[in-house]
Amino acid sequence: MTLSHEREHSDFISEQTLALFLEDNGIEALTDILVQSLEETLSILRDEYVFDTVH
Question: Mean pLDDT, the chain, as a whole number?
Answer without folding.
Answer: 76
